[in-house]
Amino acid sequence: MILLKRLGFIPAVLIAVLALVSCDDDFTTIGGELIGGEFDSLPSYSAGVQAHSKNLGAVQTNGLPVNLLGVYKEPVYGLQTASVLSQLSLSSPKPDFGNEPRLDSVILTLPYFSTRLEPDEDGNPVFRLDSVYGDSPFKLKVSRSNFFLNDFDPESNFEDRQKYYSDQGPVFKASLIGDPLYVDESFQPSASEVVYFENDPSTPGNEIDTVRVSPRLRVPLPTQFFKENIIDKQGSSELSNNNNFRNFIRGLYFEAEPLDGSGSMMLLNLSGNEAGIVLYYTAFQTVEDSITEIPGSYKLDLGGNTVNTYSQELPAQIALEIQEASEETGAENLYLNGGAGSMAVINLFEDEAELEELRANNWLINEASLTFFVDQDKVFGGNSEPERIYLYNLKTNQPLFDYRIDQPNVDFPLISLTNHSGRLVRDEDKNGISYKIRITEHVKQILGEDGENVKLGLVITQNINLLANSALKNPVDGIDRVPSASVITPRGTVLHGNLESDPGKRLKFNIIYTETNN
Question: Which segment of the chain is annotated as a signal peptide (predicted)?
Answer without folding.
Answer: 1-21
